[in-house]
Amino acid sequence: MGENNSNEGAPPPIPNGIKFLFGGSAGMLATCVVQPLDLVKNRMQLSGEGGGGKQYKTSFHAISTILRNEGVIGIYSGLSAGLLRQATYTTTRLGIYTWLFDTFRGYGEFASRAASIMPRRLKLNRFLKA
């Protein structure tokens, strides 16, 4: 008859597989955005190694040289390794994080209530033992 269900109107829970998929997709998209900057950083760091002169003067010089010599695809060289890393590492890390977060969501309330009650009881026990 008038049972109060606290889950009424709440969206259905997201399956764990979808959470893992979202985590991996986010990491892979971030890698695609950051890859050109990471490539420029690495090339500038390695420029001048082995006693040779520096190949690039500035970051903009490095980008323009790479684009001129290797084309747009050249700015994304090494992308496959980054995507593989994100597909394995970030998918697992973010998927497990969201699963653990959902699993232990209610325990924070319990822990904060227990922490607020605990000091009073300890003080009372010390007083009674004396």
Order of helices and strands: HHHH
Anisotropy-based shape: elongated
Distance between the termini: 55 Å
Main sheet: strands, sense, barrel = none
Structural class: mainly alpha
User: Low-confidence segments, ≥5 residues, pLDDT <50?
Assistant: none
Task: Tell me the β content.
Answer: under 5%
**Strand element count:** 0
Number of helices in the DSSP assignment: 4
Structural overview:
With 130 residues, this protein is mainly α. Helix content is 73%, strand content 0%. It is built from 4 helices and no strands. Helix 1 packs antiparallel against helix 3. It is elongated and about 75 Å long. The mean pLDDT is 80.
Provide the descriptors you would attach to this structure in a database record:
single chain; 130 residues; mainly alpha; 73% helix
In short:
By secondary structure, this protein is an all-alpha fold.
Break the fold down into its secondary structure elements and pairings.
Layout: H1 16-46, H2 59-74, H3 79-103, H4 107-129
